[in-house]
Amino acid sequence: MTEKRSSVLNQISVIILLGSFFGAFFVGFLVYLLISEHDKEGALKKAFFSYIITQAVFLVLVYIIRLSIDKTIISKIKSITRAMDEVSLGNLDVEVKASGNDELTDLAESFERMRISMKTIIEKLER
């Protein structure tokens, strides 16, 4: 039975969404505190409106951050994972391609060197 795993991207998104919720609530609360001294009746309405606007801005930012993380990190991890799965099944012809200047690119390059070394050793043993 295969266990369903949680995506790192989903976990990061939940953390960012919770942060945006509390951040927007804090902004709304500050607006309420600042306005309530001068306008008791309209303070709650304006605080709620500022909360909604701030939350909308935060949600757009969270979506942009999620897309950025997916493009820069998760796609590289998935590519490396697919190649590792293929190699573990005996397919030493699959290449790992990653570009950039980060740790995931270093990992992909190290895996590619290992794959080529394994393929070379197996070819030598077969001769």
TrEMBL record:
The keyword Membrane applies. It comes from the Bacteria. Keywords: Kinase, Membrane, Phosphoprotein, Transferase, Transmembrane, Transmembrane helix. Gene3D superfamilies: 6.10.340.10. GO terms for cellular component: plasma membrane. Its EC number is 2.7.13.3. One of its GO terms (molecular function) is phosphorelay sensor kinase activity. It is found in: Membrane. It is an enzyme of class 2 (transferase). It is a multi-pass membrane protein. InterPro entries: HAMP_dom (IPR003660), HssS/ArlS-like (IPR050398). It catalyses: ATP + protein L-histidine = ADP + protein N-phospho-L-histidine. The chain crosses the membrane at residues 12-35, 47-69. Residues 71-123 form the HAMP domain. PANTHER family: METHYL-ACCEPTING CHEMOTAXIS PROTEIN (PTHR45528:SF10), SENSOR HISTIDINE KINASE CPXA (PTHR45528). This is histidine kinase. It comes from Persephonella marina (strain DSM 14350 / EX-H1).
